[in-house]
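can u pls check wat happens w/ NG1
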Amino acid sequence: MAGSVPVARSLEDIYTADALSSQTKRWSSLVSKFELVYGQAPEFVARSPGRVNIIGEHIDYSLYSVLPMAITADALLAVSTENISQTQAGTFKIKIANVQDQRFPSHEFDVPYDAVDIDATVHEWTNYFKSGLRGALELLRKKRGDDFTPKSMQILMDGTVPAGGGLSSSAAFVSASALAVMAANGEQAVDKTELTELAIVSERAVGVNSGGMDQSASVFSERGSALFVSFTPSLKARPVQFPKTNPELTFLIVQSFVTADKHVTGPIHYNLRVVECSLAAAYLNAVLNPPTTRLPADAAPLGISLHGFHETYFALSDKSNLSQEQQLEELIRLTAKTLSNENGYTREEIAAVLNVSVDQLNDQFTSRFPVRAERFKLRQRALHVFSEALRVLKFMELLEHGDSTSEDYNAKLGGLLNATQDSCRDVYECSCDEIDRLCSIARNAGSYGSRLTGAGWGGCSVHLVPANKVQAVREAWEREYYSKMDLTEEQKEAAVVVSRPGSGSALYLHT
Ligand code: NG1
Ligand code: MG
């Protein structure tokens, strides 16, 4: 499913009917604010949504397929490129402001044509814009040649995806930024695959070893469908419909109000998991594949992945006739046997198996992003990844070939989500008490399946709830969770969102 980012003619092309009236107000206030700040109308708005991940958690950076969907909340960048004050020779100007100007102060930069400087050690909101800018300029230079001169831009941003909430505000912002830069420089037919790939790589420039799920969901999603995203042999995204069931199913997206900030906890949480998965791939390769086998370099953040090990192992063994599901089951067995130490492995132990020095190991695996760990839990991480990849296949099988009229259909879907939560909590260790509580409250009140969504350690959860139980589940959360917290009215309103699958990135032209 290739093609270019759609150019919307009206907001009805972008939002679901239930969101239209509030979005219309929001867009017109963005435009009037733009006029107030810059004294002219915007030429266009670039839009990219956040996402919720339905299933396939923490496996995108191991290059296994995932099933997210876009949500209504999004990043909007209103842009004009005309009448921007002259800049020094060899530079162009970026003026960027935010509708929430208290929280996100405005900035002005003169950017050299060929070098977008990003200081990833400072957590600054415009870094996300800059990373999209850098990626888009690289692509434009590839297309137009080295003497291409970028346009100056005036930008007003309005983001409604909560930051640090597991709904991927960062990917929405980076993708919308890259799209805005492409459009500002005259590219109105922006290729979705190119945009996604550049957003994935760009986001790594702001200090997170991210996988590719969020950017894919943000760019490729189509209204009414979830999105099956696979990363090998190349990035592919395919819309998937949820069947009609009785009772009807809804997804609730629910905040824990525990903020998880990857830029602070990356060295012990997210970035460490990426390192552990890559080390597990190298370790399994060293033990299970013939001596001197090298894993293929791939699109994973550290260049090798558990999926790469998977493919190599079956290509070299006599078991390549097994189905994908059987292969994953076999890998789960092999991992349990090969990586038997439940307490984790030291750098020395891993280096010895890989037949490299500890310095070489650090250089390859832990130098790109800082991590803090004495022991690396290779067993648990690999077991989660293979079992989660298997759950995604089973979930897809139910969606595409299951009997949605059978009585236990909903419970089967929900059971897989619950199993994901168990694995995230116990094996991958990326949940937290608050999320666990939200999940068990929901299940007791009628949710079929409840789990964290996104990176975890706080943030958001997703719940598969029959329409006739939504009220009961909401009341249970209020009674047993939210009423015990000190929340603002605004937070209370945003706490529980019924989400329909939304559309992906779009450009909206104002002229
Ligand atoms: P969130 O929850 O948006 O920070 C992160 C990664 C995804 C994926 C999930 C876990 C980034 C930008 N996104 O999402 O790629 O790995 O965690 O499944 O880091
Ligand atoms: Mg993010």
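The longest helix spans residues 378-401.
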